[in-house]
Amino acid sequence: SAVTQQMQRLEAQMGCPLFQKKGRNRVLTPQGQQLAEYARKMLAINDEAVRSIGRKQMEGEIRLGAPLDVVDTILPPVLTHIARHAPRVRLEIRVDRSPFLMDALESGDIDLTISTRQAPDLRGFALRTSPTAWICAADFVYNKRVPLPLILADELSIFRRIALEALSHTQRTWHINYLAPTLVGIKAAVRAGLGVTARSVEFLGPDMRVLGDAEGLPPLPPVTYTLWTRPDTISPLTLAIYEMLKGQFEQKSAEAN
């Protein structure tokens, strides 16, 4: 009831409806959306003033998401750069699958995330583009004359889609031998020799090997790991960390080229 009174008082002050019913909920009217945008800008200016005048260094908490397959490769340089240039920033790391991380970002549960997903409505830049390969255990016995035993994740997996699309353009027969909802399960199945999976080379371990043309398997497209944030974020700290990492990785990419 207190919230409803605040909403009614705000509408009376503005002289126009700011909320409208949609089912059992209330959503913003066009005027409400316009006011909310001004409010975000005002809060951002306030936070920026406090940060610039009251603090000389970036500090606060950043919630960062990362898929499991990059925790040993792409994530460490990101964390190192933040720790070196913003030592007062506390980091909360969430390791999960890309689709769940993207949902968490859009809902505001995390501030930034690394993901292979594409999202034109979000703000991001490429951290690394990695080759995708057919990967099996080092001692896996590959046989061209039998259907290819696949180790795949569920329907949400970009690598599942990549693998099945590539095989659909060949005469190679296949079957799903092992289905796992997590990367831990996929890695365990590969190491156990249960079949072949398609993953980025970030997945590779010393007890695995890559299959390819010699085994009659089709080439796979590379994947790009992107650092994403919401375009409407009003957190000066999130924006500062994002821009700092963007400058660092774009500089490294330019130097490599």
Beta percentage is 25-35%
How would the global form be characterised? elongated
Q: For the report, how would you describe the main beta sheet? A: 5 strands, mixed
Structural class: alpha/beta
Number of strands: 12
What is the averaged pLDDT score?
89
Q: Give the N-terminus to C-terminus distance in angstroms.
A: 60 Å
What does this structure look like?
A hairpin with a 2-residue loop joins strand 1 (19-22) and strand 2 (25-28). Helices cover 39% and strands 26% of the residues. The radius of gyration is 23 Å and the shape is elongated. It starts with a helix and ends with a helix. The protein has 257 residues and is an alpha/beta fold. The mean pLDDT is 89. The strands form four sheets. The protein has a five-stranded mixed sheet, sandwiched between helices. A three-stranded antiparallel sheet has the order 10-7-11.
Structure characteristics:
257 residues, alpha/beta, 5-stranded mixed sheet, 3-stranded antiparallel sheet, 7 helices, elongated
